[in-house]
Amino acid sequence: MIKLNINKKIYELDIDPNMPLLWALRDVIGLVGTKYGCGVAQCGACVVHLNGEAVRSCVTKVSRAAEQQVVTIEGLSADNDHPLQKAWLELDVSQCGYCQAGQIMSAAVLLKENKNPTDKDIDNAMEGNICRCGTYMRIHKAIHLAAKMQNKGSK
Amino acid sequence: MEKVPGKKFFIQHPKLTIITMVVVTVFGLSASGLSRENEVADAKNDNISQADRIASVAAFEKVYKVLMSPRCMNCHPAGDVPLQGDDSHLHTMSPVRGRDGKGVYAMKCSNCHQPTNTPGVNTPPGNPKWALPPADMKMVFEGKSARELALQIMDYNRNGHKNKTQLIEHARDTLVKAGWNMGEGRKPPPMPYNEFVAAWDEWINKGGIAPGK
């Protein structure tokens, strides 16, 4: 049995310890906000937080995540009111939307560690998240806006 | 002793001057000796025989081939982005070194590089210690001649503050050893691991001599 703590909820699953966390999230638990993109840690669509770090769940075995703190896009905020989620809506960032859960989860780690990121900081943090629609400029703007919201204590 | 106006101190006090010079010289040599405890070897040390010098340089030629292979050099780049693949191209996604060598923000090494290799071709190789050297001591291999690299490794202030014992141990480090197990589709270094360790030990134990160029 593998014991997973996902969004502060405990799941005890009878699964292979080598199963990628993404499979457990989507196919076993039913949390489908996290997306499958490439399967080899190249695109960032599957980013979730493992003990606060933006890991790629497609290559992270459930054995690594066992009894650790996992947060998915569904658990990022109580009411979809994380500054990034609000900024994303305000600036209408998404186009097809497929990569956006991973983008937001990566950006959340950036804003946790850097309250006032420059464009260069955003590049360094977000280079690993690919958007086929090319929404990068809006992503940059939304991260700056979310940083302002966060600094004003808006949530 | 009477002071003579206009005459310099060492002319007025010849004995005191000589004593001072001796004391300063002895202290200076002692300090120099202490600092050498942390050096791997003194390339100018005349105690090393000519035979050992030749053997040491020959061993480093083997070591150099391994250190400059993609499996070692890719994580010792000249810039702040690691290299990738058997052709040592810049790592896709441009992850950056960060202060501790473990990446930054959402682009930390261990976000993709797991504790073990991920199965399949073009998947991230893994090791629990995956990292570049830290920003304050980059320990660059890329672009270095054999002589430059040997001198850098022998220099306590440029080799990650490793003394001789720690350098010998470094060849046994699990991340170094992982170079020979980098996952599917990656060419290993040009000689077996045990042969590399033997050459590494011989190079250091016989004086850590740098090749002429």
From TrEMBL, chain A:
Entry's PANTHER family? BLR6218 PROTEIN, OXIDOREDUCTASE WITH IRON-SULFUR SUBUNIT
Please give one Gene Ontology molecular function term for this protein. 2 iron, 2 sulfur cluster binding
Superkingdom, natural source: Bacteria
| The name this protein goes by in its record | (2Fe-2S)-binding protein
Q: Which organism is it from?
A: Chitinophaga barathri
Family annotation (Pfam families): Fer2 (PF00111), Fer2_2 (PF01799)
Q: Does the keyword DNA-binding apply?
A: no
Keyword terms of this UniProt record: 2Fe-2S, Iron, Iron-sulfur, Metal-binding, Oxidoreductase
